[in-house]
Structures are given as C-alpha cells and as structure tokens.
Structure prediction request, 72 residues.
Amino acid sequence: LKPLQDAFDALYPGKGQCFLFLLYATLCVTSITFVHLCVPETKGRSLEEIDQMLRPRNSTAPLALEEWVEVD
Prediction:
C-alpha cells in the first residue's frame, strides 16, 4: 500500500490531475467492459434458472448456498 500512496503523493494538485482522470476513466471503462462481457443477464429469470445458469456445466452438485438453506 505504501508504493501506491507514494505514487499518488507525487501528483501535486494541478500537476497530475490529467493523469488521475485518465486513470479513473480507464478503470471505469475496464469495469464496464468486464461486466458487459462476463456477467450474465438475469432479468426476468427465476432463481432456479439463475442457479442452473451459474452451475458448472458438468456438475450436478448443489451450489454452496443450498447447503445452508433448508428447502421444504
């Protein structure tokens, strides 16, 4: 954590604002791209469909949550 703090301390106000904005913009674009490509859409699906969708393809084992929740 210390090297990161030193890197930001070196950017004096007015001197490194452009760099900080570009860093923030890059992180935002990267996170939006990751969510768009890697996180499946779950709107309009039941919990059972989401469970089946997130389960590994060749696995019939329950997800960890099912071990803690009692189903009647």
In short: The helical segments are 2-9, 17-38, 47-54, 64-68. The mean pLDDT is 77.
